[in-house]
From TrEMBL:
<keyword id="KW-1003">Cell membrane</keyword>
<keyword id="KW-0812">Transmembrane</keyword>
<dbReference type="InterPro" id="IPR005467">
    <property type="entry name" value="His_kinase_dom"/>
</dbReference>
<keyword id="KW-0418">Kinase</keyword>
<keyword id="KW-0547">Nucleotide-binding</keyword>
<dbReference type="InterPro" id="IPR003660">
    <property type="entry name" value="HAMP_dom"/>
</dbReference>
<dbReference type="Pfam" id="PF00512">
    <property type="entry name" value="HisKA"/>
</dbReference>
<dbReference type="InterPro" id="IPR036890">
    <property type="entry name" value="HATPase_C_sf"/>
</dbReference>
<keyword id="KW-0472">Membrane</keyword>
<dbReference type="Pfam" id="PF00672">
    <property type="entry name" value="HAMP"/>
</dbReference>
<keyword id="KW-0597">Phosphoprotein</keyword>
<keyword id="KW-0067">ATP-binding</keyword>
<keyword id="KW-1133">Transmembrane helix</keyword>
<feature type="domain" description="HAMP">
    <location>
        <begin position="190"/>
        <end position="242"/>
    </location>
</feature>
<dbReference type="InterPro" id="IPR003594">
    <property type="entry name" value="HATPase_dom"/>
</dbReference>
<dbReference type="InterPro" id="IPR004358">
    <property type="entry name" value="Sig_transdc_His_kin-like_C"/>
</dbReference>
<keyword id="KW-0902">Two-component regulatory system</keyword>
């Protein structure tokens, strides 16, 4: 007995479908064979009766009232291996070819059919012999007014025996076909269940944290896709865990550095003995490092809100050119330290519908990254272009660029091209989601050693395309 499961369902379904089809074919075949043989017997008797009647009527010299008429008819109309009875129109047996005389009239359905003018036919069990027979009756009138019914009765025993043998052969063939189908369905079920069991076992290992486990085997079609998807999922989990570990290591360093500075200067100031200028420098460092910590924490909190769809945008009209000018002013000091020139190219001041603070956060991050990865004495261009239904902002630099390998992953959370540059690796991931919340797109094009272009596309406001 096959235990419950997919294997059992596949085998059972195949078996039921094939068994039903075979059963229908067997029934139709056996009925067709039975009908064919029975019709052949009926056709043979009917044809013989018609031929004999035609011959008898032409060549027999009929004499009305001849007492030898019935015996003469019996001799001329009889058939081999078939009992012939001559009946009157009331079904009484006048004479027959056997020694047994019927004491009752014949009431089977073939007699009324013959009286009605048809060649009657009846198949059933003969009471006197308890044997299956076929009776064929025909009304005949041989001159004068005397009308008789010729009734032929033939045994169906040999015919039924042949049909029984044919049925046995047919059933045997059906059983053989079912056995082959059963074996085939078992093989098919195993070809599906074994890979599924393997995939299930690997999934169980992954559920226990063993993400290095892989589904092995060259499976085809949906099973192959499932195995590949599971392996890819495990690979992504391993990569995500590695990125998470790198992030924890990086953020630990990022947090430790300002905290060390804050703690050191706090203890130094608390101990006293410093002049006002040194105390002022210490307090400035504490304030600066505190702001740095707040920025790191806020970045992590923003990412958490975006992941949980809790980020609420305060939508309004935003003059994009004015926003970009404000960003340039905010980043001017940082750019000056590396002698980097910030250039804004725009002839229009388009209006977009969005959250000014969040859009500012996006472009601050993009310009900050451009400054971070640009060489000294270089130039960063912020180009603003307007189109009929959207506005494009390009942040271009001639810095280090990003390799093709890293370009596909640079927007992944916690990923950093160079962890030594600091940060959480969340900036671009947050910017990407913020732009998408504004129904826009963020595209990065870069070539290692030649610089990077980050393009942000935002829909224009329907009310006003731009402000001059």
């Amino acid at each position: 007995m096959i235990k419950k499961g997919i294997r059992r369902q596949i085998v059972l379904h195949y078996f039921i479908v094939v068994f039903t089809a075979l059963l229908l074919v067997e029934v139709i075949f056996l009925l067709a064979i039975r009908t064919y043989y029975y019709d052949s017997v009926y056709s043979h008797i009917s044809t013989s009766v018609k031929n004999a009647e035609r011959y008898y009527q032409i060549f027999r010299l009929y004499e009305e009232g001849n007492v030898n008429l019935l015996s003469d008819m019996l001799a001329n109309f009889k058939l081999t291996n078939t009992e012939l009875q001559i009946l009157d129109t009331k079904g009484n047996v006048l004479i027959n070819t056997t020694e047994f005389q019927s004491e009752t009239s014949i009431t089977t359905s073939d007699v009324p059919q013959a009286i009605a003018g048809d060649i009657g036919r009846w198949v059933g069990r003969q009471p006197s012999t308890n044997e299956d027979v076929m009776a064929v009756s025909k009304l005949t009138q041989l001159g004068g007014e005397d009308t008789y019914i010729l009734r032929y009765t033939t045994s169906l025993k040999m015919l039924n025996d042949k049909l029984f043998n044919v049925s046995l052969v047919s059933i045997s063939i059906g059983a053989a076909v079912l056995a082959v189908v059963l074996a085939f369905s078992m093989g098919l079920a195993n070809s599906i269940v074994k890979p599924l069991n393997n995939i299930t076992a690997v999934s169980a290992q992954m559920a226990k944290g063993k993400y290095k486990a892989r589904v092995k085997g060259d499976y085809k079609y949906e099973l192959g896709e499932l195995a590949s998807t599971l392996n890819h999922m495990a690979q992504e989990i391993v990569r995500s865990n590695q990125i998470k570990d790198d992030f924890i290591s990086s953020i630990s360093h990022e947090l430790r550095t300002p905290l060390t500075s804050i703690k050191g200067w706090s203890e130094t100031i608390h101990s006293g003995g410093f002049d006002p200028d040194e105390t002022k420098i210490g307090l400035q460092i504490i304030s600066k490092e505190t702001e740095r910590l707040i920025g790191l924490v806020e970045e992590i909190l923003d990412f958490s809100k975006l992941q949980q769809n809790e980020m609420k945008l305060v939508m309004g009209k935003v003059a994009l050119k004015e926003l970009l000018k404000e960003i340039m002013l905010n980043m001017w000091t940082k750019a000056e330290k590396k002698n980097i020139k910030l250039v804004l190219e725009s002839d229009e001041n388009p209006i977009v519908i969005g959250d000014a603070n969040r859009l500012k956060q996006v472009f601050l991050n993009l310009v900050d990254n451009a400054i971070k990865f640009s060489e000294e004495h270089s130039e960063i261009q912020i180009v603003l272009n307007c189109y009929p239904e959207q506005v494009e902002v390009d942040v271009q630099d001639n810095g280090l660029g990003i390799s093709e390998e890293h370009l596909n992953r640079v927007r992944d959370r916690f990923f950093q091209v160079n962890p030594l540059n600091g940060g959480t690796g969340l900036g671009l991931a947050i910017s990407q989601q913020l732009v998408e919340q504004h129904q826009g797109t963020l595209v990065i094009q870069s070539e290692l050693g030649k610089g990077t272009v980050v393009t942000v596309m935002l829909p224009l406001s329907n009310e006003n395309d731009s402000i001059s």
